[in-house]
Amino acid sequence: MTPMLARLRPAGPIILSALAVVAVIMLLVARLGPSESPVDVNLERLAREDFAAIEAALAEVRAGIGPGGAGDIRLMRELSVFHSTDPDLHGRLQRWLAWKPDSAFVQLALGLRLRHIGRAYRGARVVSRTAPEALALFKEKASEAAIHFRAAAALDPGNPLPAIFLADLPSGVAPDEATFAELIEGPARLSETVFDLALYKAHPKWGGSMEEVAWLLAELETRIPENPALARLRGFDDFIIADQLLHNDYHNEALAYSESALRKGENSWYVHTQARALLALKRPEEALAVADDWLARWPEWPFLHEDRIAALADLNRHQEVIAEVDRLLRHDPLDVSMLSLKARHLMRLDRYDEALASIRKAAIYGRYDSRVHLTEAQILHRLGDLPAARTAALEAVRLRPDSTYHFSWLLVIVTAMYDCEESMQTAERFVQLCAEIGDCKADYLDSVTQYMAELPDRPYCRNRLDRSESHSTEATVG
């Protein structure tokens, strides 16, 4: 091992955040070969409320889950249609439940929808940068989801997925349920999904170690040698190295390791890392080709769509970015990240009214996401509605008081409003925050410092000072 790689391999106990597991499950749902997307097929069935067809399709896939849980990823892929914020989905699921109250599948669907809504509130930030209100809503929805997952487990005790979904919930929500570590030890729950998730949580960035990865791969070879998961996971150690190299800006090396992982087995994680490395190397045409190739096989896999969107954006193909986002919103119409992305690209096309509508829709579930409010502030600033822009920027700052970027935009807005006192207060807070966290660019910090020095001499500040002195004089004379 080279010294560079040695620095990238921390060891430690397995610790996996609930959010990380949610991301992993979204990665797992699209690992099969070329076929029509189950999401598209099931979306049409749901629109028709053809619950009999949905039950039959799920039952057929469920029958393929054999000893050791082989085939459960296929069922997870079919169920991915319920990872949706579609407002109409709740009513349809309730009608399905009324039609077949003893269905384990509808209980799984109800649980997955609730968990996904909780995740929409929660967002994709680390806990330290997530609003407490968002975390509370996330856990509230997860607790409701746990009720349905337990009901599914009781109705279909041979299905490993309810136990896996329960283990995925945030810490403390389902305290009596098995952890992934316990699931991997139990032969009754020895499934390809459990191994996938256990390997991912052994990633050093989640507190695991390469030693744990090696142990899990050895266990996989021993326990389920005939399972298709084995071929997909043989390159997992190379994938982890690639992921860490990419995080540390060793882009060429990351690309080499991701390609090495792909030579050992076709896995969507490896492809995602390959595309990210190509994007980091400013090779968007190649990244786009990689994403398009794999999306032909895994059309519903969200991270490949994100890679495709990033490549299109780097190529300044913003109309195509919006079209791609709209395709994803067909399945998940209130997805915060996609609506926010759409708003930003609409801004680049000077379509500000449409951008504002998109970001305000994002605020339905992203009400505690500072980035949503900041994007709204930027759009309103462009539209010239400065009071509303200030209100949105203040909410962004309230949610992320440690963000110099948020404060810099608030400063831009209050300066445009010719508010002398608030401009000075915001600039002072910006400089103070720069000193506290040390992440401000020197040239920008210097410009703000110079702005503060010049502010008292600006006409609107002089006029305010003159008025203040005049009032003071009048009060003294009186």
Structure characteristics:
mainly alpha, 3 domains, 478 residues, Serine Threonine Protein Phosphatase 5, Tetratricopeptide repeat, single chain, 71% helix, globular
Secondary structure tally, helices: 27
Structural class: mainly alpha
Query: Outline, from the CA principal axes?
Result: globular
Summed up, the domain count is 3
Low-confidence stretches: 1-35, 467-478
Largest sheet: none
* Strand and helix order: HHHHHHHHHHHHHHHHHHHHHHHHHHH
The number of distinct β-strands equals 0
* Helix fraction bin: over 70%
Percent range for β-strand residues: under 5%
* Termini separation: 84 Å
- The pLDDT mean sits at 84
Instruction: List the quaternary state of the chains.
Output: single chain
CA gyration radius, whole angstroms: 26 Å
Tell me what you see in this structure.
The N and C termini lie far apart (84 Å). It is globular, with a radius of gyration of 26 Å. The chain folds into three domains: 15-181, no CATH class; 238-310, Serine Threonine Protein Phosphatase 5, Tetratricopeptide repeat (Alpha Horseshoe); 364-469, Tetratricopeptide repeat domain (Serine Threonine Protein Phosphatase 5, Tetratricopeptide repeat), CATH 1.25.40. Mean pLDDT is 84; it is low at 1-35 and 467-478. Helix 22 (370-383) packs antiparallel against helix 23. With 478 residues, it is mainly α. It is 71% helix and 0% strand. It has helices spanning 3-7, 18-28, 38-48, 51-62, 72-79, 89-99, 104-122, 132-155, 161-168, 180-185, 192-201, 210-223, 229-233, 236-247, 251-264, 268-280, 284-295, 302-314, 318-331, 336-348, 352-362, 370-383, 386-399, 404-416, 420-437, 442-454, 459-477. It is built from 27 helices and no strands.
